[in-house]
């Protein structure tokens, strides 16, 4: 079950944040765009922490984190395409 700890930590942090009312999107503002950016940033953080804690994922932390951040760069592209 390689990656189990990663998956658990990844979702645990997001669920905990939701229950505690931590809303990155609200802090960023800008309505739906803030929510999208907040979700992307929250996912990046939880993925990075999951990689740090799961021994099976230690060597993948850089790739996972950079991959998440590169995907975040697509938010303005999708926003422009939608407009």
Description:
The protein is mainly alpha-helical. It has one domain (about 5-80). Helix content is about 80%, strand content about 0%. It contains 5 helices and no strands. It has helices spanning about 5-20, 25-30, 30-55, 60-70, 75-80. Helix 1 (about 5-20) packs across helix 3 (about 30-55). The protein is flat, with a radius of gyration of 14 Å.
Rg is: 14 Å
Largest sheet features = none
Distance between the termini: 43 Å
Q: What is the overall shape?
A: flat
* Quaternary structure annotation: single chain
Number of helices: 5
**Helix/strand structural class:** mainly alpha
Helix content: over 70%
What is the domain total for the residues?
A: 1
Average of per-residue pLDDT values: 84
Number of E strands? 0
- Kindly estimate the percentage of residues that lie in beta strands according to DSSP: under 5%
| Uncertain regions spanning at least 5 consecutive residues | none
Run of helices and strands: HHHHH
Outline the secondary-structure elements.
Blueprint: H1 4-20, H2 24-28, H3 31-53, H4 61-72, H5 74-82
What is this structure, in a nutshell?
The protein is an all-alpha fold.
Can you tag this structure with a few keywords?
83 residues; mainly alpha; 5 helices; flat
